[in-house]
Amino acid sequence: MSQIDVNNLLSQMRQMSSQVKPAEQAFTAAKPGQADFSSLLKQSIASVADAQTNAGQLALGFERGDAGADLGRTMVAVQKADLSLNTLTQVRNKLVDAYNNIMNMPV
């Protein structure tokens, strides 16, 4: 049988416990310089709206036959706008599900 070095074991435990954050620090509010969830959500919605507008303008220019209109660039912009809208819809669905779960929790 091998002997256990208690001092070595204690020092390793202290080192590991110092690396773990206490639970009360895990849920701190955002600092003034950092973005919070609502501002990130607003930026995402604005980004999706911009992508939709850009895709619409490129598609309209291609339909009119503008000289600078490119089918490839138009199709990529439309697909990006569609993907961003679908992603935003999925995020909204997850938020609604989370809200419903919280509202159905017994108090």
Automatic annotation (TrEMBL):
Q: Name one GO biological process term.
A: bacterial-type flagellum-dependent cell motility
For this record, an example GO cellular component is: bacterial-type flagellum basal body
* GO MF annotations, alphabetized: cytoskeletal motor activity; structural molecule activity
Q: What InterPro entries has UniProt attached to this entry?
A: FliE
Is ATP-binding tagged as a keyword? no
Q: Which UniProt keywords apply?
A: Bacterial flagellum, Cell projection, Cilium, Flagellum
Source organism, top-level taxon: Bacteria
The record lists the membrane-crossing segments as none
> What subcellular compartments does it reside in?
Bacterial flagellum basal body
Under PANTHER family, the record lists: FLAGELLAR HOOK-BASAL BODY COMPLEX PROTEIN FLIE, PTHR34653
Q: Which family does it belong to?
A: Belongs to the FliE family.
What is the protein's name according to its record?
A: Flagellar hook-basal body complex protein FliE
Give the source species: Dyella jiangningensis
| Gene name as annotated | fliE
